[in-house]
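In the previous lecture we treated proteins in isolation. Real proteins rarely work alone, and many bind small molecules. This record shows how such a complex is specified: first the sequence, then the SMILES for copper (II) ion.
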Amino acid sequence: MGAGRDASSANPFQAGTTTLTAKGDQTEVALNLTPGPASVSQPAFMHNGSCPVVSGVKYTLTAVLDGKSTTMVNVALADVLKAGPYAVVVHKSSQEAGIQTTCGNVPSTAPTATPTARPTATPTATPTAAPTTPPSTFQVTVANFALPNITAPVGTTIVWTNKDSLAHTVTSGRNGVFDGTGWNSAVLDPGQTFSFTFTKTGTFNYTCRVHPELNSTVTVNQSGPTSSTAGTPGTSGDYYTY
Ligand SMILES: [Cu+2]
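The predicted 3D structure, ligand included, written as tokens:
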């Protein structure tokens, strides 16, 4: 952790920064100034108080050479800060120690911890509900002399299987007459199938061309469920010719 701050320098001959760094129970005091006279050792001190008024020396720092000085102070950083404020004073040279070239205040509060980026929670993938795909095909049975009434979502392919003992057709229309739209199977002998895919919603009548009294509906909705119920059976049992 670095406690760097400069120095509102009262006499900014040599501007720079003082950095306090915790080193376990010790504190590193690093000065980084614009260099003074080349290769001239410049006495440096940490005084109690603030610039420009300076009272006694608290710590003697390593003399600054070419703008740099590092000193280990045998006091923990928190205690250094607690005991402040301090001012770092650098003198022109040993010979001219009476001339301060820098006075910088050392902050007396703990440096603000560098904000650690808060780890962003890894987004948990929301399990995607398996799309409820409507059954692509729906098996229905023609039996007991009746056509089933059917409900299914759009897109369903309805497969009629004739399990009756009679032949039937499944034909769009009413009363045995194909209405010219939709679907119209051939005559389905027992055991035969016919399929048709419903791509539009609506309620569609259908009938049997062989047995006009058989009339039922296919209801196609935007979505499920799929169901089939027995339609009204014929009564005559007549087998119409076709
Ligand atoms: Cu029929």
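Summary for your notes: The longest strand covers residues 16-23. Residues 166, 168, 208, 210-211, 214 surround copper (II) ion (CB under 6 Å).
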